[in-house]
Design a protein that fits this description.
Blueprint (H helix, E strand, L loop, with lengths): L17 H8 L1 H19 L6 E5 L5 H10 L4 E6 L2 H10 L6 E5 L12 E7 L8 H9 L2 E12 L6 H11 L20 H11 L2 E14 L6 H11 L1 H8 L2 H17 L1 E2 L3 E14 L1
Parallel strand pairs: 1-2, 1-4, 2-3, 4-5
Antiparallel strand pairs: 5-8, 6-8, 7-8
Length: 284
């Protein structure tokens, strides 16, 4: 397996650096929080025995391993991520899985010596490209003609109370400017017309999109309100912004988050907050 990118020179929304390390530090909590969405993505994808699959933005590799179980020993899965820290963790987890491999590279430019693959899946790994038109054109070249991609992407923030309510707490303490809705980030693909245009430009066709709505456990299943607040401030961008405003501001925000999460806490399940995701498939 070869890649054109040097992992030491990778760029992105700092997933090659700080964000990747934060995810790794809290990996079990992050994965526990979004595991049901990954399950829904894979169920919809319906990966078949013997297929060769790319897992885009594979993180710690759990979706890659699940896909590998679906492909069986005759298939193969390649996990691709821009974070060297997360790729190291994924490789550690996959020691006993010979049909899974991982590379650290920028998917926007990566060239694979054994392309094309049959399938591409991504659980929240496709929304961070600086130039998504160019990136998806490159991804199209990695998938065989007629092959399928399956993506899980966040719907608009207004449809995701878990984000809106956290941001509401943060904005009660600090000014947070409204971002460019199409800037690289978790909600960059909330506008489905924009996503369809990217896919069409790249050569993908027949997009099929359905909503997934549920609840996710902030800070992982079983977290207390205090634990969920610690997680949110330690792992999410709002935590750094609040910390930069000073210790007193951070402490007040923590108290407000504990209060909010207390209202959303379900004994035995954790701090449960509503989400909305788009599950998208298209053909190369």
């Amino acid at each position: 397996m070869t890649a054109t990118a040097d992992p030491n020179e990778l760029k992105g929304e700092d997933w090659a650096g700080e964000m990747g390390r934060k995810w790794l530090t809290h990996i079990d909590l992050f994965e526990g929080m979004i595991a049901p969405i990954g399950d829904a993505l894979l169920a919809r994808a319906g990966i078949a025995q013997g297929e060769r699959v790319i897992d885009l933005g594979c993180g710690g590799g759990l979706t890659s391993l699940a896909a590998a179980r679906a492909t069986g020993p005759e298939g193969a899965v390649l996990g691709l991520d821009i974070s060297p820290d997360l790729i190291d963790e994924a490789r550690r987890r996959a020691t006993d899985h010979p049909n899974v491999s991982f590379i650290c590279a920028d998917a926007a430019t990566v060239a694979l010596d054994d392309a094309p693959y049959d399938r591409l899946i991504s659980r929240f790994g496709s929304m961070f490209f600086a130039d998504p038109y160019a990136a998806f054109t490159n991804l199209h070249g990695l998938i065989r003609s007629g092959g399928r991609i399956d993506l899980a992407i966040w719907a608009a923030p207004r449809d995701n109370p878990w984000m809106m309510e956290l941001m509401g707490v943060a904005r009660s303490h600090i000014d947070i400017p409204s971002p460019d809705p199409r800037a690289p980030g978790p909600f960059a693909f909330a506008d489905l017309d924009y996503v369809r245009d990217i896919l069409a430009h790249a050569g993908f066709s027949a997009p099929d999109i359905e909503p997934y709505q549920g609840e996710q456990a902030i800070g992982g299943p079983g977290a207390t309100p205090d634990e969920a607040a610690d997680f949110a401030l330690a792992s999410m961008a709002i935590g750094r912004a609040l910390a930069e405003a000073g210790a007193d501001t951070l402490a007040r925000a923590h108290s407000d988050l504990v209060s909010l999460f207390g209202q959303r806490h379900v004994p035995g399940k954790g701090v449960m907050m509503a989400n909305k995701v788009w599950l998208l498939s298209a053909r190369a």
